[in-house]
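User: Please run a holo structure prediction.
Assistant: Happy to. Please share the sequence and the ligand.
User: Here you go; the ligand is iron/sulfur cluster.
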Amino acid sequence: MTAKAPFQEVVELIKESGGAALAECFQCGTCSATCPWRDHFSFLPRKMFQEARMGLTDFESDATWRCVTCNKCVQRCPRGVPIIELMRALRRSVIGMGIAEAPTALSGALRNLSAAGNPMGEAGENRNAWAEGLGVKAFNASTEYLLFPCCYTAFDPAMKNVGRSTAGVLSAAGVDFGILEGISCCGESVRKAGDEELFKQLAGVNIQLFKECGVRKIVVNSPHCYHTLVNEYPELDGRFEIVHTSQLMAQLVDQGRLPLPSAITGKTTYHDPCYLGRHSGMYDEPRRLIAASGAELVEMEPARADSLCCGGGGGRIWMETPRSERFCEERLRQAAATGADTLVTACPYCLSNFRDTALNQSLSEKFSVIDISELIARAL
Ligand code: SF4
Ligand code: SF4
C-alpha cells in the first residue's frame, strides 16, 4: 500500500482499527480550533478525519503522532465524536498493520516495553529501588493499599523523590500500604500510541499479579495509570479500587489523619494535568491540599478544564518535539506570570516536561517545579 492511497481499503482498515465513529463527524472544525497545537504547529484533526473518510490518509505523516490526547476537543465536539479513539484507530492502523514507520523514539520505547516491561528498558528487578532505606513493606493479601508508582517515578533518578515523598506522607498518616515485585508499565501510552497487543500483554501481567497477590486497592501517582486502571483494566477483567495520590492525601487531610504543622510560605500555582482534570474530573483535591499546606494558591490562566496540556500525553512523552513547538514552554511562561515561586503538578509527565523546560528557560533557580506529594511531604 502506498502512503497516500485513495482506496476504499484504507477506509475499511481505519474502521477495523476502531475508527467507525468517523461517520459521526460533520466537519464543523471545532476540534481544530480548540486543539493546543493550533498555536504551535499545523495539525488539523477535522482535516485528518475528512481525509480518513475519503481513504486519503497519509499514514507516513507526522500528524498521525501529534495528538496528545488532552481531551480538550472531545469536551467541545458538538457531535460527541470520540476523537481520541479515532486518533488511536489511525495509529493502530500504522502499528498493528505495519503500514508505515512509527517515530524512531517511540519505536524505541515500545521495544523496551516489550522486552523489559518499562519504556526505559531498565531491569524489572530495579523497579522498587526508589524505596530503598524507607522501610516500605512488601505488599501481602492483608495490606490495604498497593502503592503503584509509574515507570517514570520508579526509574528516573530525578523523579524518585516523588515516590519517596508519597511513601513518607502515607506513612505519616498511618496508611497501611506496600509495594510489589514484578509489576509492569500500566500500558497507557502504549495503547494511545496504537499498540493494542502490547497494551494487553502489559496489562495482563499486572492484572494476573494483582489477583494472585490479593490486591483490592491501588494508589497511583500518575493520572495516566489512574485513567487506565479505572477505565481500561476492567475490559480485561481487572477490577480494583483505584485512587490517585492527591485524592487519597486529600481524604487523609479531611479525616484529620494528616497534620501538616510545617506551613509552606510563599505563592504556589497549580497545573491541572489533562488526565487528572479533563479526563478524570479531579480539580479540587490538589487545590485543597495546597491550601492545607499553608501555601497561597495563585491560579494560572487558563486553569481547570481549560488548562493547557504539557504535551506529554498520547505517547508524545516518548517522541521528540522541537522546542518551538512544545506546549510546556508556553505553560511555564503562564506559570511564571502568576508571580508564584513554586509550580505544583500531580503527574510525572508534566513534572518531567516542566522541569526540563524550567532549565531551558533559566527559571529553575527562582522557580521550583514539584509534585503535590513533595509539597505535602515538606509540610509534614
Ligand atoms: S468537533 Fe467533532 S464534529 Fe466537529 S470536526 Fe471535530 S470531530 Fe468533527
Ligand atoms: S485530544 Fe487534544 S491534542 Fe488531540 S486533537 Fe483533541 S485537542 Fe488536539
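The first helix runs from residue 8 to 19.
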